[in-house]
Amino acid sequence: MAAFTDAMSRLVSGLAVITTRRAAGEPCGLLVSSICSYSVDPPSVLVVVDHASRCRDPLARCGAFGVHVLGSAQEDVARTFASRGADKFTGLAWEWDAAVPRLRAAPIYLRCTPTAVFDHGDHTVLIGEVTRADVAEAEPLVFYRRLLDWRLREGGGLHP
Ligand SMILES: Cc1cc2nc3c(=O)[nH]c(=O)nc-3n(C[C@H](O)[C@H](O)[C@H](O)COP(=O)(O)O)c2cc1C
Q1: Which of 9, 28, 33, 79 could bond 13 through an S-S bridge, CB–CB 3.0 to 4.6 Å?
Q2: From the candidate CATH numbers 2.30.42.10, 3.30.450.20, 3.40.80.10, 2.30.110.10, the one assigned to the domain spanning 2-145
Q3: For residue 84, which atom of ligand 1 is closest to its CA?
């Protein structure tokens, strides 16, 4: 429904890269805007993944996944993980944090253990309990009206 997608394009959201390890051992990851705080006790996030994503099956079966909330300096990382590239990790600084591929550039990193995974329609809902949270100061990467590069300006307002 066009009015629905138009309405949702006006909802300001942050962006995060969700990562995990495939059964064969290699890392995988995708960009999502559907990330939110789910509960404080226990500390949990909610992420929604399209069944068409190649990360859907690894995420639905994983023992841990990573949430990387991106800053305004990571627009290139956002585009890489929104792509269908064969190896999105080549050329990026990353390391294993237990079984989770951790991107060094992201200012906010959460390591999560899935506590609920269920399908609804053509998406999978993942609720993850946060077992590690690292936070560095950075301007957020904002997604608004189908553009990645909106910025929050000092003194108020959101500008491309
Ligand atoms: C701004 C933006 C937000 C997105 N949000 C989501 C999302 O919340 N969930 C999702 O499954 N895909 C989302 N996507 C699409 C995936 O990032 C995209 O389909 C990606 O190619 C999937 O990669 P994969 O097949 O390697 O997993 C979003 C893409 C963009 C550009």
Answers
A1: 33
A2: 2.30.110.10
A3: 21
